[in-house]
Predict the structure.
Amino acid sequence: MKNGTSEVILEILKVSGLLAMAVLAPNAIQFLKERRPVRDLAKVRRQINRSLYYLNEKKLVGCVQKNGKDYLQITEAGRKRSIALELTNIQIQKPKHWDKKWRLVIFDIPSTLRIRAETFRRKLKELGFVMLQKSVWVYPYPCEDQIEILRDIYEIRPFIRMILAERIDGTKKLREAFGL
């Protein structure tokens, strides 16, 4: 994606659906103010305009008219791009001290959703989870929020369970795998 401003605009549209053109810039500017200091408001507005132009050219957003007013709307391609960005940005923060609890993610995804299951499994591995069994993965640090996001993105919520465990047999190998 061209810049962070484009990502912010896509995220705002993904959450809100339609956004009146008249209110886009102030909301985006406020959002940007929270993310980084703004020294030159005119520069930020130019950046937003460039980002809107870029998003429109890439067909990630489009203009629609309702009740005589212009609105900005995310397209299906924009929604997919936003989800891809969200997936790319998922990270699990390691706390300074381990709470000596294991997070188990278990799943039984139907074979009709095999590609989603494989993608979910790859993402767990990428995040640092260790496979205990084919559909049982372990992680030592809090990760519930990240799993919630993955459940929703891959549309597999009913098939995923999380367990918080204080003890698992044979944890020596797990401790070694996580450097604990």
In short: Residues 41-57 form the longest helix (17 residues). Residues 96 and 159 are 32 Å apart (CA to CA). The chain has two domains: 4-88, 93-178.
